[in-house]
């Protein structure tokens, strides 16, 4: 019986990890794949390695919170399998609505529902987690505003991330030992920017592993009959990697299309900001959604870029002198000979007339899922464990 439950749990964990891999690989490597800097297969392979690295190190802190911190009793194997079922259900609903699934939030909701049904919920821990869920979007938004208003326009004037025709590096076979050499059109600047893009992608993959591996692994690490923590991490990593090599191929092509058409440089700012927020919170054991920080940073950069025509004083006092805030400033390429407008100066026409940075309806849908996802998993788990209390 125990072996059967464990097998079902492993299958459920693989299903959850598979879907996580499809979503997080697209978010992490989509911009780089779209720019032609890395191939899909290479992106999936690198993603798998760094997801394992993040889950094996920082992710353990999140696993402790999920398996021991949210409820005052140990999460048993049978209860963990049921939790994985509700996580999978949340993923299914999110996929139906076509938005990245807030897996960490759905996981916490399912375990919290168990705690409410069995009167074992650790209210202090859940209050801390909820407070970070409220603060994190605000942090991402305002960091994005600062980047978009003061940093991105200047960097965008000086840095052009472009991919030349032909391979980046080739093997020089003229000597006795083949050695790497520049491709036919490669420059030192292109090589340097490519390395930066790859390093940032690896960093985001690490962050994704720290936050997402515990979601698929923690429910299996329960009781005397559960999996060993190390084995559970390996199972979850392999499942995420499988998702990266398969369903993520389409995600990498389409990621960002609904929220934004931002260039690669802006995407790198988003990736660094979102990864740092997620990794930091994972380090202190807070289950957090990488998607949450990513989306709000995108919105912040766009809003900060769009509000450059007004000063802080004008924004606070409301004295705008008939000025209008224009969205979409981040997606237009400024002419090289045109200087970056100072704060308070009007943007060039080609910037003001660019397509909208983000779709407000898409933002509403994403934020709605951050509320609906964990709320639904909490209510369903509460109802289930109330009706079947013996499973815990």
From TrEMBL:
Keyword Cell wall biogenesis/degradation: no
Superkingdom of source: Archaea
GO biological process: phosphate ion transport
Alphabetical list of InterPro entries matching this protein: Phos_transporter
Residue ranges of the TM segments: 44-63, 75-97, 130-152, 188-206, 226-247, 259-277, 283-303, 367-391
Cellular component, GO, one term: membrane
A Pfam short name: PHO4
Keyword line: Membrane, Phosphate transport, Transmembrane, Transmembrane helix, Transport
Topology term for the membrane: Multi-pass membrane protein
Compartments, as annotated in UniProt: Membrane
Family stated for the protein in its record: Belongs to the inorganic phosphate transporter (PiT) (TC 2.A.20) family.
Function description: Potential transporter for phosphate.
Protein name from the UniProt record: Phosphate transporter
